[in-house]
Amino acid sequence: MTFKPAEWPRKLRSQEWYGGTSRDTIYHRGWLKNQGHPHDVFDGRPVIGILNTWSELTPCNGHLRELAEKVKAGIWEAGGFPLEVPVFSASENTFRPTAMMYRNLAAMAVEEVMRAQPIDGAVLMVGCDKTTPSLIMGASSTDIPSIVVTGGPMLNGWFRGERVGSGTALWQMSEDIKAGKMTQEDFLEAEQAMSRSTGTCNTMGTASTMASMAEALGMALSGNAAIPAVDARRRVMAQMSGRRIVEMVKDDLKPSDVMTKAAFENAIRTNGAIGGSTNAVVHLLAMAGRVGVDVTLDDWDRLGRDVPTIVNLMPSGKYLMEEFFYAGGLPVVLKRLGEAGMLNRDALTVSGGPIWDEVKDAVNWNEDVIRPADKALSASGGIAVLRGNLAPGGAVIKPSAASEHLMVHRGRAVVFEDIDDYKARIGDDALEIDETCIMVLKYCGPKGYPGMSEVGNMGLPPKLLRKGITDMVRISDARMSGTAYGTVILHTAPEAAVGGPLAVVRTGDMIEVNVPDRRLHLDISEEELEQRIAAWQSRIEPPASGYAKLFHDHVEGADTGVDFDFLKGCRGREVPRDSH
């Protein structure tokens, strides 16, 4: 894609607030001067909003205040006027019922902050899982020049000589406790080794996946995704991004110029190559909807089917993000995709040039971390989309994190009506379940949980863990953490709470799973399925008020990105009028 920069100088949108000598402009300008800004910074130079998701209750983003100072330095150096703006920070670690419940609220807040204030460009400072998509969604709706700066992953965790991967080790150790392989005292000791520096998860969880998606989309400078949070080069990246956003405003390089169909295709293929999180599916679908690009579940299946997983990171592999960075990071992966004919080389990035120019000279410094295709972790590493009478709207599975022997499986359903039912019964040794069964969890989708929590990777029954069983087929309308693993089928659509077929599955039903054939089938007749659905009654009580009601009334399904139905096609609304 060839991009033609806008003419410079020209009048920017911030001058609607700050330019001239009218009562209104003096009102806006005068109040801001109480921060000590000299008069000449209002001379028409680009005003850059540093949209910061820093929060002490968002541990992954706890260092972004410091990083913002480097962004400011870059903006000043390039002739811009930086103004830091705190925005909604949805923490995966602390928010209940789930941070996903608030992703759309955060995106709405960011959109209105950008639209209603004198910002010519934005630096999106993100890290924790939902902060990256929410800020990109908001920026996409305003279509104001924007660049992503992520906080970076934590350093490797180590416990008794072994790597400790964020989340991944937590799931494994909690299963080991139930299996009697680990003591509670050891678990508590390991806790101290899990998070030994600032930053996001050090596995290829959702945070690192979405950082990679931002880079693959072209919304971040090349190399941004993998630099550890405490590495000095993370600060350099922040400063360079600050410089770059000023030039982007002058050129009028907008999200809609970068986030094209070609860019989304690059991101989807990249997700397969890195063994990325299934959460990327709902986030990219939502981002595409905001920018007006037609991306569907079928694109995920079509584009990811033949992409090998070449990044050897937990939860699919062995290493962690620190080693991924040392090996060369995402530019190496993008170069490999380009050499294999799986990259749209001309896709534009925030650099102003094509993505291929950014990565063609990348060097792989460790071929065990970033493997050649003939030594891939999985030959087909993309997200697989399953369909059938149990998931007419689709369901997803991450083959690179699943067990090969369960990719084709037929088993008896053991149904948990909701997460509380699961928690009450899973530890009972009298539960009639064995390793051939398929665990089914209902009412954990967008409307059902509410918010679609990360509970799809249900822990196995302790009695089976004690037998040495480490994986079973699990099906739900929930999500799972990108740090999790197993043969877990997620995002089943339509969800149970709206009367999807999942709602009428009964314990004892037989279910067929065939990942190579993309099939998910409930073995009952079409007539019986129709009768069950006709007799179904919702067990969900709609919220009476507040954001919960807004969410319930307007959230769409996992198959379209879990965004609100009224937010698509809203890109580029006009600037609000001055009220003074």
Top keywords for this entry?
580 residues, alpha/beta, single chain, 13% strand, 20 helices, globular, 34% helix, 4-stranded parallel sheet, 8-stranded mixed sheet, 14 strands
Protein described:
This protein is of the alpha/beta class and 580 residues long. 34% of the residues lie in helices and 13% in strands. The chain has helices spanning 15-18, 23-32, 64-77, 103-116, 131-142, 168-179, 184-194, 206-217, 232-251, 255-258, 261-274, 279-291, 297-304, 321-327, 330-339, 355-359, 419-425, 462-465, 526-535, 546-554, and strands spanning 47-52, 81-86, 121-126, 146-150, 157-159, 162-164, 384-388, 391-397, 408-416, 438-441, 473-476, 488-493, 510-514, 519-522. The strands form three sheets. Strands 7-8-12-11-10-9-13-14 form an eight-stranded mixed sheet. Strands 2-1-3-4 form a four-stranded parallel sheet, sandwiched between helices. Helix 3 crosses helix 9, helix 4 packs parallel to helix 5 (131-142) and helix 11 (261-274) crosses helix 13 (297-304). The chain is globular, with a radius of gyration of 24 Å. The chain starts with 14 loop residues before the first helix and ends in a 26-residue tail after the last helix.
List the helices and strands and how they pair.
Blueprint: H1 15-18, H2 23-32, E1 47-52, H3 64-77, E2 81-86, H4 103-116, E3 121-126, H5 131-142, E4 146-150, E5 157-159, E6 162-164, H6 168-179, H7 184-194, H8 206-217, H9 232-251, H10 255-258, H11 261-274, H12 279-291, H13 297-304, H14 321-327, H15 330-339, H16 355-359, E7 384-388, E8 391-397, E9 408-416, H17 419-425, E10 438-441, H18 462-465, E11 473-476, E12 488-493, E13 510-514, E14 519-522, H19 526-535, H20 546-554
Parallel strand pairs: 1-2, 1-3, 3-4, 9-10, 10-11, 11-12
Antiparallel strand pairs: 5-6, 7-8, 8-12, 9-13, 13-14
Helix pairs in contact: 3-9, 4-5, 5-12, 6-7, 8-11, 8-12, 11-12, 11-13
